Amino acid sequence: MKIGLIINPIAGMGGRVGLKGTDGNLYQTALKLGAKPISINRTLDFLNSLNIINELFFIVPNGIMGEYVIKQSKIKNFKVINCAHDNYNTNKFDTINCSKLISKEVDILVFSGGDGTARDIYDSIKDSLPVIGIPSGVKMYSAIFAKNPREAAKVIESYFYGNSNIKLKEVLDIDEDEYRSNKLKIKLYGFMKSISSEGMVNVGKQAVYSSDEDEIMGISNYLKELIKNDVIYIVGPGTTTYNVFKNLGIEKTVLGVDIIKNYKVIKFDANENDILNLIYNQKAKIIISPIGGQGFLFGRGNQQISPKIIKMIGKENIIVISTISKLSSLKYLLVDTGDESVDNMLKGYIKVIFGYKQEKIIKII
To answer: CA neighbours within 13 Å on the CB side: how many for 127?
Structure first.
């Protein structure tokens, strides 16, 4: 089976430093803030998780968009196509150009990036070829992504053995400038062929809003009893956390990770370093809500809460809240922190608060 592989080398670098993406010229800003490459290690994780490498032949772009990475992996059967700049200054036109050329020679196209990369590939090949995304961006709201790099490898194997089907899935688009201004505008950009498999995200992010104010008030009143003075609370993004804390008299950001202590925000839109500095030698907890439709707790739009932070705080100090309407669409919860040991630590069952002293036990897989 011939597989095309395209890597966006700067995807995801804005996450932990709180930039919410690297579209446009923000790559240099991310570097100045200490951001490290994400997609290369995620792609290596995918490649080295494949168990049928003798049955696969890869076609990759030259340089950092494929060649350098595949040569570091256990894959031996591959061909390089010269279609991209040979450095980190690659751009959307490299992605579009490489997608167009490589798609003519392969059975399936795998890319490493986020929604912006998915959008560029869609612009190049539309729905002419099945596509799988290795989640490596800040936002992965589209439905063409695997749950994590290791699951992407399993999806390839399932497809090779004929145990999965092709279906059209949503490519979603958001405005990053609006996103950084605390406004989430999601629109359907198009549909691409992808794999229908347990290892894939089945639907794109759904904007779930509860019309029942009593539901939000119930969660707020329960948190009021749980929140203690002199404890630091790392509060994740989303309309659920925003509305719940608004009822508590705390105006947090909608899309940022905010730090709260003694019912006051002590840091708006915190990045990983902000959080680490504030929780040092302090008792801290995380309050978070899953993504509607997908069920991700960590690894999608909240990479500021890094594996290091999660490990320091511990699963027992994570408080999950959700509206009933959001919970009704979720069979389980997901995590993709970028650290397999932390993912494994989080797996198992966790309580989700959905009203006043109302909790549901859900499995994290």
So the answer is: 14
pLDDT at residue number 323: 92
**Cα–Cα separations (whole angstroms), residue 161 to 1, 154, 236, 330:** 10, 11, 40, 29
Alpha-carbon span 220 to 110, nearest angstrom: 43
350, β-bridge pairs: 362
Distance CA(11)–CA(269), nearest Å, equals: 20
Q: Which residue's entry shows tokens 């390089």?
A: 80
Query: pLDDT per residue over 309-318, tens digit each?
Result: 999 999 999 9
Report the C-alpha gap between 197 and 216 in whole angstroms: 34
Residues in the chain, total: 365
Kindly list the domain boundaries of the chain, sorted by start residue: 2-196, 213-364
Q: Which residue has the tokens 């061909």?
A: 79
- 295 has pLDDT over 60: yes
pLDDT band (50, 70, 90) for residue 138 = confident
* Structure tokens that stand for 12 in this block: 């995801």
Q: Where are the alpha helices (DSSP H) in 227-359?
A: 239-247, 272-279, 307-313, 324-327, 340-346
Model pLDDT for residues 171-218, shown as the tens digit of each residue: 997 766 666 566 677 889 999 999 999 889 867 666 544 446 888 999
What are the C-alpha distances in Å from 199 to residues 36, 67, 205, 297? 27, 26, 16, 17
CA distances from 243 to 213, 217, 219, 223, 323 (A): 9, 9, 10, 13, 11
Q: Which pTM does this prediction carry?
A: 0.89
Name every residue whose Cβ is closer than 8 Å to that of residue 113 and which is 6 or more positions away in sequence. 7, 8, 11, 12, 39, 95, 133, 134, 136, 137
Angle, alpha carbons 188-190-194 (nearest 5°): 115
**CB distance 170 to 145 below 8 Å:** no
- CATH 3.40.50 assigned to 2-196: yes
Whether the pLDDT of residue 14 is over 70: the answer is no
Distances (CA, A) of 96 to 3, 22, 274: 17, 17, 36
